[in-house]
Write a structure and sequence with these properties.
The chain has a single domain, classed as Alpha-Beta Barrel (TIM Barrel). It contains 14 helices and eight strands. The chain has an eight-stranded parallel beta barrel, surrounded by seven helices. β6, α8 and β7 form a beta-alpha-beta unit. Bound molecules: coenzyme A and zinc ion.
Length: 318
């Protein structure tokens, strides 16, 4: 039996990735992609979001997607939910988990969710009380490592909001995702944050969500893993981005993160060749190049034939 440390991946390409794509991705393509991802070894897939179709037209087909995907035992199908209305829709669609989102930055919350944080907290609290443990709830806190409009976000502010959700109890709020929404985190900051989080929220599932906006994504994953974190969000192909960080690259690429951790001896539970096959379909699905690198370069174990003159040189020097 393997004694390698297990790392769990949550794929967010079809939610965090797709929501900012400019042209609508057909429902059949979304379903085919989720079905392909289900065979890759993910612990979770964030399939879609039950948001207002006016706010996020890309995901207006959430019911149909959730209704038609083939659910593989052992994979949890989670969905993003902004309010009670979204929670009702998610429960009806038999989501395995509801991922509730708000920002720890007041300005970002106003920009993204169009309400002050207190109002978001009240709305999400209603959802938590309404669901009342029937379906696990995860809380995603945006901008935990900095806000593109406010700048520094104090760690104490992150902990204050996390504490308020944790106070509902683990039977109602199962996990917390600490998001670096616009790629402002650096590894030293991540190391400090994960130490505090693990001490304080030992009873909760802790997930880290990084964006590679400034090229620090995998360095941050490494800092978190070395600090004891075992759960990560990633987006196939590195799809995603943020409307408030123009020109930014997206989430960390799932396949690049999995490939790195696998090379280091961690057990990611993923079928990497299969994952790369799916990753290579991403440019066709979204209609443009994607940032992920391993799908282009191949795995470090995919070797290339040397040019013919190498054999000649070898023979000549023998
Ligand atoms: N599902 C479907 N429709 C919803 C909805 C939901 N969860 N929540 C609100 N709506 C609809 C309302 O019915 C209303 O429709 P109408 O104009 O036809 O009457 C409209 O959206 C506005 O509703 P309101 O209650 O005023 O909400 P709002 O405009 O303040 O929107 C959010 C608040 C958060 C629901 C909305 O901005 C949203 O979904 N944002 C998406 C945020 C997001 O996913 N960001 C990226 C991920 S972090
Ligand atoms: Zn994100």
């Amino acid at each position: 039996m393997s004694t390698a440390k297990r790392i769990y991946f949550n794929e967010v390409a079809t939610r965090d990735g797709f929501q900012i794509e400019p042209s609508f991705i057909p429902t059949d393509d979304k379903i085919a992609l989720v079905d392909a991802l289900s065979e890759c070894g993910y612990a979770k897939i964030e399939v879609t979001s039950f948001t207002s179709p006016k706010a996020i037209p890309m995901l207006r087909d959430a019911e149909e997607v959730m209704g038609r995907i083939r659910r593989v035992p052992g994979v949890e199908y989670t969905v993003l939910v902004p309010n009670l209305r979204g929670a009702e829709r998610a429960l009806e669609s038999r989501a395995d988990e509801l991922n509730l989102v708000m920002s720890v930055s007041e300005t970002h919350n106003l920009a993204n969710l169009r309400m002050p944080r207190e109002k978001s907290f009240a709305a999400l609290s209603d959802v938590i009380r309404h669901v009342n443990g029937r379906t696990p709830i995860n809380i995603s806190l945006s901008c935990c490592f900095g806000c593109p409009m406010e700048g520094d976000v104090p760690e104490a502010e992150v902990l204050r909001w996390a504490d308020r959700f944790a106070a509902f109890g683990a039977d109602r709020v199962r996990g917390l995702t600490i998001c670096d929404t616009t790629g402002m985190a650096h590894p030293a900051q991540v190391s400090r944050m994960v130490e505090v989080l693990q001490q304080r929220f030992a009873g909760l599932q802790l997930t880290l969500h990084f964006h590679n906006t400034r090229g620090m994504g995998l360095a941050n994953v490494l800092a978190a893993v070395q600090g004891g974190i075992t759960r990560f969000d990633g987006s196939l192909g590195g799809l995603g981005g943020c409307p408030y960080a123009p020109g930014a690259s997206g989430n960390i690429s799932s396949e690049d993160a999995v490939h790195m951790l696998d090379a280091m001896g961690y057990d990611t539970g993923m079928d990497i060749p299969r994952l790369l096959d799916v990753a290579r379909q991403m440019p066709a699905i979204v209609g443009h190049e994607v940032p992920g690198q391993v799908a282009k370069a191949g795995r470090i174990t995919d070797l290339h034939a040397p040019p013919p003159y190498v054999a000649e040189l070898r023979a000549a020097s023998a």
